[in-house]
Amino acid sequence: MSTPCKQLLGLIHDIPPSATLIRNILRKSTLGEEPFDTIVHADLHFTEVIMTHFPRNPLLQRSLERTAATFTTVSIINNLFLSNNDVIDLSWFEKEVQTTGSTKWDGVVFAIKNKRVTPVLIEFSGDNRIHFEAIILLGNGVFIKRNLFVVTCPTSPDELKDFGEMIPSMLAWKKAVVEQTKKLSKSLGNC
Fold first, then answer.
1. Listing from the earlier edge strand, what are the strands of the sheet with 120-122?
2. Which of 15, 23, 74, 129 sits between 20 and 30 A of 110, alpha carbons compared?
3. 177: Cβ contacts below 8 Å, ≥ 6 apart
């Protein structure tokens, strides 16, 4: 994680839970005189966009699962991978992938160079949380699924601060997905 992003998250961590105070901090740059670049400062850009997007949360109102997911999960994942759109392609709602047959997924992350490489499958759970998971191949050829962490989509300033605390974990997960996608694409001769 970049120094400006760490500084921003540190400032947010140190204040009382207040949407106004959080937004005031977001409006001040931690870059100093350095020009802002959405690719170079992808982590900072993600933090600013998502922390500004919430706590306005459609889950506080009556809405169908996919409507709510569009404002929460889809927004978070799209912004998380924005700086890697040369490696990662996101596809949403009723998507099928070769590896799972006719199973339809709410979201799929594909490799740009090879659509057979699908490092992330997304299923909306109908609640206010996003489960970040990994499939791990053991030495004996058995796959296991691990729930790495869970993020609650914030609906209050307190939850927004908690969400901010999880941003480093989300960025680390994204980095692992991108690196694995590049590795798999290269091993298949398409990168």
1. 88-96, 104-111, 120-122
2. 129
3. 81, 88, 109, 119, 120
In the predicted structure, residue 64 carries a pLDDT above the cut 70: no
Q: Is 76 helix (H, G, I), strand (E, B) or coil?
A: helix
Q: Are 99 and 116 in contact (CB under 8 A)?
A: yes
Residue closest to 82 by CA, chosen among 47, 115, 58: 47
Domain spans of the chain? 3-187
Report how far residue 40's alpha carbon sits from residue 54's, in angstroms, rounded to the nearest whole number.
Answer: 24
Residues 166-182 have pLDDT tens digits of 999 999 999 998 998 88
Model-level pTM? 0.81
* Residue 171, C-beta contacts closer than 8 angstroms, at least 6 positions apart: 1, 5, 43, 46, 80
| pLDDT at position 190 over 60 | no
CB 179 within 8 A of CB 90: no
Please give the Cα distance from 184 to 102 (Å, whole number).
Answer: 23
Q: What does the pLDDT read at residue 174?
A: 92
Give the chain's end-to-end CA distance (angstroms, integer).
25
CA angle at 12 for the pair 6 and 18, rounded to the nearest 5°: 165
Residue owning tokens 């400006």 = 4
- Paired tokens of 92: 């949403």
Give the span between the Cα atoms of 158 and 106, in whole angstroms.
29
Question: What mean pLDDT do residues 125-150 have?
Answer: 80
